[in-house]
Amino acid sequence: MDGVDDTGFYPLSVEQKGVRVKNNTEEKSTRRIEREQSKNGLAWFALFLKGMAMGAADIVPGVSGGTIAFITGIYQRLLAAIASVSWSVISVLRTEGLPAAWRTVDGTFLLVLLLGIGTSIVSFASLLSWVLATHPIPLWSFFFGLILASAWLLISELFGEAREGGPTRERGVRPFGLGLYLIIGVIFAFLLTVAVPVTVEPTHLVLFFAGAVAICAMILPGISGSFMLLLMGLYAPVLTAIKTFDLQVIGLFAVGCLVGILSFARILSWLFLRYRHEVIALLVGIMLGSLNKVWPWKETMTTRINSHGEEVPLLQVNVAPFDYVERVGQEPFLMAAGVMVLMGMLLVLGLDKVNRRQ
C-alpha cells in the first residue's frame, strides 16, 4: 500500500516528528522541574526539623540551640542570614522590591527555621521540662553523646586536612595551631560552667547588656543564654518581667538582644570568611568545655524558685556515677545513661553519613 513502510505503519512526517521531539523535551523538562521541586520541598522540611531540634535544645537549660545548628551544618548560613539584616535591606526594598529584599536576608531560610523552633518550643516545652525533672540522667546523657560525637567528627576533619595537605594546610594552618584554639575554647567554656552566680542590680544599662550577652551566648554552640542570665543573677528578674508583662524591662532586654545578635553575627561571619578553620576549632573547644555542664550525674548545692513557683537547681557539682548513690541518694541508672549516650552518638554519625551522600 502506498505510503506504508516495511513495518506496516505510515511514516511520520517532518512536522509530526518535530511535535514528538518537542513533546518529549517538554515532558523531560516537566519531570526535571518536579524532581527539583520535590528535592527543594524535602530540603525545607529537613530545615524545619533542624529548627525543631534547635528549639528542643533551647528548652533544656545549659544546652544551646547554636550547638544543634553547628552539628546539623546550618550554623554558617544562619550567621550569614542574621548578619545580612541591615539598613541596606531597606535600600534594596525601595529599589528592587520585596522579593529582592527577601532574598537578601535569606528570608525563606530564616522563616522555616523559626517556624521549626517555635513549633518545638510550643509542642515540647512541657514534655522536656517533665523529662528533665523526672529523668534527668538519660536526658543529659543523650546530649552528652550528641556533643561528644559531633566534636569528634569535626576534630577528625580539621586535623585530617591539616595533616594531609587539604585546604587547611594550604593556608598555612598546622595541627598545633588548631590544637591551641581548641584548648582555648575548652578552657573558656569550662570556666563558664564552674562560675559562681553573682547578684547584679537590674538597671536599664545592665538589662540592655544582659540581653546582648544572653543572645550572643545562644549563638555560640555549647553555651546557653539562660545559663548566662543565671550567672549574672538576672534570670529571675527577666522571667518575672515576662510573666508580669513589664514592657519597660522587656523592651530594654529585647533591644539588647537585637543589637547583640546583629553585631555578634556580623563579627562571627567575618571571622568565618577569613579564619574558618580556626573559628571551627575554637567553637569545637567550647562544645567540649560545655560537656562539664551536661555531665549526667550532678549534686545540687543550692536551689532557686522558677517562674512557676517550683524549686529548681541553681548551683550543681558533678559527681562520679559510682559515688552518685552515696552523695545524692538516688540510682545512677548507668545502663540507661549508656544507651542514651550511644543513641546521641549514633544520631550524629547517621546525620553525617546522610550529609556526605547528598
Salient structural properties:
single chain, 358 residues, mainly alpha, two-stranded antiparallel ribbon, 16 helices, 73% helix, globular
What helical percentage do the residues reach?
over 70%
Number of strands: 2
Give the count of helical stretches. 16
Shape: globular
Read across the widest sheet, the strand sequence of neighbours is: 1-2
3D structure, described in words:
The chain contains 16 helices and two strands. It has helices spanning 14-59, 65-71, 75-83, 88-96, 98-104, 107-134, 136-164, 167-170, 175-193, 204-219, 225-232, 235-244, 247-274, 276-289, 324-328, 334-357; strands at residues 298-305, 311-318. Strand 1 and strand 2 form a beta hairpin. Helix 10 crosses helix 13 (247-274). The radius of gyration is 26 Å and the shape is globular.
Please provide a brief summary of the model.
The chain has helices spanning 14-59, 65-71, 75-83, 88-96, 98-104, 107-134, 136-164, 167-170, 175-193, 204-219, 225-232, 235-244, 247-274, 276-289, 324-328, 334-357, and strands at 298-305, 311-318. The protein has 358 residues and is mainly alpha-helical.
How are the secondary structure elements laid out?
Layout: H1 14-59, H2 65-71, H3 75-83, H4 88-96, H5 98-104, H6 107-134, H7 136-164, H8 167-170, H9 175-193, H10 204-219, H11 225-232, H12 235-244, H13 247-274, H14 276-289, E1 298-305, E2 311-318, H15 324-328, H16 334-357
Antiparallel strand pairs: 1-2
